[in-house]
Specification:
Four Helix Bundle (Hemerythrin (Met), subunit A); 3 domains; transmembrane helix; mainly alpha; elongated; Recoverin, domain 1; Helix Hairpins
Length: about 425
């Protein structure tokens, strides 16, 4: 954030001291980004670091910033022959990483990325429309003479295919397309080019210019441009309407919440923390904060997550179990048979998957005696049910005991009353 603010503080005719202060701040931020790059490289190593696109972007920013500093302050100080300060502008992209921590921004970014899959078809339709109209424009208005005081000049004409595309692109933006249409019509009485066969004609304008430009502008303004908006809105509605769809933002949320329970990034957490972790993750990947603790334990019983001997659960095994349960990938029937079928599918599709990773996410067959998270929480539920049953039995016994004691007290009171009546019998008879 501070780096972005500093980039926006530059203005024209600024004092030298002010410029030097900005340059020093540029060096400070470059040093911070370079230190971040070195620390991440040491933590993730080369292959894992560059497998993340955001890390590749950070690497380009660091290299560009270093080139900027070396060229500006060391190689050619004080020269303006080549300006490479635009490398600093890439740092603004880091602001996207900060804003993407919010759930709403992540959803919008994911929608924008998913929309790119359908945009090539819209771009192909636009290219076809421009191609057709460019060829028609060359045939109808390519013979008009180029005059500087008209809309058809050396920079704006239909004499070549490339120039026709430029004119159509300008018309699609709405910049002076009426003037171009008027210059191509008979009302402007445009002259014919001396190199054309129609040089002897009085005018090369055509009434066809009116339907030509009107139809093109209507198609571009009210159909083609709205197609982009329709594609993005359709993807946004599809991705936000059904929250059961898993996306990259769910993975980011899982990594962020996992880091709270695993601050040292060991890739494992205690099995007692799994329930709290999954309750803090929103559906469809997690259980949600409104999920009762007992219900979360019941869901964990159906997950075949292996439990290490030290009582911890691995990152990959937990994430794979959540995705498998959410998408219902071979979760029915015999669990051993389903695991074996899923292992075969993974080997067939991802042939380079390490055997250690495969055994970590899917326990191999013949490991019934191994303790899993599901078995642990099943034991926890059984103990909880037994405690609740025992508590109900004790409460029932207390109620029965209280009932007997109440009945005995009533009998004693009745006997005392009868004895009192017996003692008062002579007086009652005399009365």
């Amino acid at each position: 954030m501070i780096n972005t603010v500093v980039l926006a503080m530059k203005y024209n005719k600024q004092p030298d001291n002010y410029s030097k202060a900005l340059d020093y701040l540029n060096i400070v931020f470059t040093a911070i980004f370079a230190l971040e790059f070195l620390l991440k490289m040491a933590a993730f190593h080369f292959r894992n670091y560059f497998s993340d696109p955001s890390n590749c972007c950070d690497f380009i920013i660091v290299v560009g910033s270093l080139i900027d500093i070396l060229y500006t302050d060391i190689i050619a100080p004080g020269t303006n022959v080549i300006s490479i300060n635009f490398f600093r502008l890439f740092r603004v992209m880091r602001l996207v990483k900060v804003l993407s921590r919010g759930e709403g921004i992540r959803t919008l970014l994911w929608t924008f990325i998913k929309s790119f899959q359908a945009l090539p078809y819209v771009a192909l339709l636009i290219a076809m429309l421009f191609f057709i109209y460019a060829v028609i424009g060359m045939q109808m208005f390519g013979k008009i003479a180029l005059e500087e005081n008209t809309a058809i000049n050396i920079n704006n004409n239909f004499q070549t295919f490339f120039n026709s595309l430029l004119v159509l692109f300008r018309s699609a933006t709405g910049e002076g397309w009426q003037e171009i249409m008027y210059a191509c019509g008979p009302s402007a009485n445009p002259k014919c080019d001396t190199r054309s066969r129609s040089f002897n004609n009085e005018s090369c304008g055509s009434y066809f210019a009116i339907p030509y430009f009107l139809s093109f502008y209507i198609l571009c303004s009210f159909l083609i441009i709205n197609l982009f908006v329709a594609v993005i809105m359709d993807n946004f509605d599809y991705l936000t309407r059904d929250w059961s769809i898993l996306g990259p933002h769910h993975l980011d949320e899982f990594v962020r919440l996992w880091s709270e329970y695993d601050p040292e990034a060991k890739g494992r957490i205690k099995h007692l923390e799994v329930v709290n972790l999954l309750r803090s993750i929103t559906p469809p990947l997690g259980f949600g904060k409104f999920c009762p603790h007992r219900t979360a334990c019941k869901k964990l019983v159906s997950m075949n997550m292996p439990l290490n001997q030290d009582g911890t659960v691995m990152f990959n095994a937990t994430l794979f179990a959540l995705i498998r349960t959410s998408l219902k990938i071979k979760t029915d029937g015999n669990i051993d048979q389903a695991n074996e079928e899923l292992r075969a599918v993974i080997r067939k599709i991802w042939k380079r998957t390490p055997q250690k990773l495969l055994d970590q996410i899917i326990p191999p067959p013949g490991s019934e005696d191994d303790v899993t998270v599901g078995k642990f929480y099943a034991t926890f539920l059984i103990q909880d049910y037994f405690r609740r049953f025992k508590k109900r039995k004790e409460q029932a016994a207390k109620q029965i005991q209280l009932g007997f004691s109440g009945a005995s007290k009533n009998s004693v009171a009745l006997q005392a009353g009868l004895r009192q009546l017996h003692d008062l019998g002579p007086e009652i008879r005399r009365a």
